[in-house]
Design a protein that fits this description.
The protein is mainly alpha-helical. The protein is built from five helices and two strands, in the order H-E-H-E-H-H-H.
Amino acid sequence: QNGLFSELLSQVRAAVSGGNMSIATRAREATHVVCATPPRRTPKFLAAISVARHAVTLDWLWQSDQLGRAADEVAYAVRDPIREAAWGFDLSASLARTRAGE
């Protein structure tokens, strides 16, 4: 499993570079949270979505790499209504509040 993770991490780093983006070293610096679908409610995920403007799938990252810039986030927004209901929150509404500066 570590080999698969290392390979994925290498691919992510290459895509970030190809998309003219960078990886934030601190959650408060993040503009995008790239996450697995369905998302897992981890402390890092919760910290990142509290400041990030977008939560997107890995497909967004691959598309951004192909475009050489950040792709439109709307088509790649992370959505998981079942888990959001279980967790008692609406991810898109939370991100919209962050974008609005709330």
